[in-house]
Each structure stands twice: as structure tokens, then as C-alpha cells.
Amino acid sequence: MSPREGKGRRRRYAAAAAVVAAGVLGVSACGTDSAPRSAEKRAANPPGQHSDKIPGYQRAYAAGYEEGRTVHADGGKGAAVREVVHGGCARRALDAGARADGDRGSWVKGCQDAVQGGPKEAPDRPMSKKESHPVLLKDFRAWARTEGDGALGRHADQVFTVKLTGRDYDVEVRTDYTSRSQAKDFAGAFAEWWDGDDGAGVARSVLILDGHDRRIAVRSL
Question: DSSP string covering the chain, please?
């Protein structure tokens, strides 16, 4: 092989390698449908970790953080007061649907971190803590009897508190209702009974559940 032939072959090899490298970069920049992957998608799926391998509470945190960033961008500094001090993030979690189902408390923490301009630091454990409170159920039934509607109290089966993050928590009441309109009326009565003395925390909402623990009504407290 002459020196000229060797140089020509090396140039052809270099050109071919450049074409292959460009193809690899093109594939890396696109998803399986050849559409560019969004920054949100890349953040939600760290390298080497599929979304179904990420704990539900961390996915909920990431979703809450993205919501909080949007709220902060729209509302500025005042958003931190509304969403953290006045419980805006806690109430927003109830409208987040499946995005918050992995752990509602983690969603709230993500939202609060973002609206305060804090770093994105997912918790290393679920934030929500659900506890049954038979005394609350007993007190509510007693109030219903005093109001002349003992049957109302008997529709309630169990009362829970769900600690979210910081001082925020929700109240959940499991009932035998299947009608959303009846559950909504019940939520109104429960909110009337709730005296506002929230103890060490702040109750943000009451969630009325059916017998299968499905949410059928929500009301702010």
C-alpha cells in the first residue's frame, strides 16, 4: 500500500466514524419516537433508573416540586406565604390526582420546597403518616346526637388524621356513603363540628371516603 493510498483510506475511515458518531448523538437526543426528550422526563428518570423503579414517594415529591415551580413563577414571593403558611400546597395535593398518590405528604413537601426557592431534595422516606382516632369519631357522634341527628354520626365508620409535612395534616372520615351529594352534605356537617382547635398542627381539609376508602367528597377546614 502506498502512503497516498494509506492516507486516503484513513480519511474514509475518519469520515465514516464521524457519520456513526453523529447518528449516536442523534439517537441519544431523541426518544423511541424520534422526539426530543424533555428536561422534565430526564429529571424524572435518572440515568440507569427506570421510572417504575423510583419509589412512589419520590415520584410524588418530583411532581409536587414541578407544580411548586410553576406556582412560584406565576405568583412570585407572595406564593411562599400562600402555599406554605396558609396551606395552599396541602390543598393543591388533593387536586394532583395520581401524581400525588404515591405519597401526598411528599407531594406537599416538593411543592413547598419549590415555592420557597429551595433545592430539589427528595425525602428518603414517605412523609405521610396516617393514624386512626377513635376518640374523634366518638366526639363527632356525640355532637351529632346533641344536634338531634344521631343517624348522621352512625354513617361514619372511622376517623383518621394524615400528617403531611411540617404542621399540615388532613382528616379522613370513612363512611357508608356511596352518593357524592350525601357525602358532600356530611362533609359540611363535619366541618361545622370541627372547632378549629387543631392542636399541634393545622388541619387543612376533610376527605370523606366510601367503604372502600375511595374519596367521594372534600371540604376545607
Answer: --HHHHHHHHHHHHHHHHHHHHHHHHHHTB-TTSPBPPHHHHHHS-TT--GGGS-HHHHHHHHHHHHHHHHHHHHTTHHHIIIIIT-HHHHHGGGSTHHHHT-HHHHHHHHHHHHTT------SS---EEEE-HHHHHHHHHHHHHTT-HHHHHTEEEEEEEE-STTEEEEEEEES---HHHHHHHHHHHHHH--S--TTSEEEEEEEE-TTS-EEEEEE-
The pLDDT value given to residue 51: 56
Tell me what the mean pLDDT of segment 21-37 comes to: 35
Give the distance from CA 79 to its chain's centroid. Answer: 18
Confidence check: pLDDT of 12 > 80: no
Backbone angles phi, psi at 182, to 5 degrees: -65, -40
Q: What pLDDT was estimated at residue 200?
A: 75
- The three three-digit cell numbers of residue 125, written as one number: 422516606
Q: What is the pTM of this model?
A: 0.73
Cα 25 to Cα 12, 34, 178: the distances in Å are 20, 12, 55
Question: How far is residue 108 CA from its own chain's centroid?
Answer: 6
Q: How many residues in total does the chain contain?
A: 221
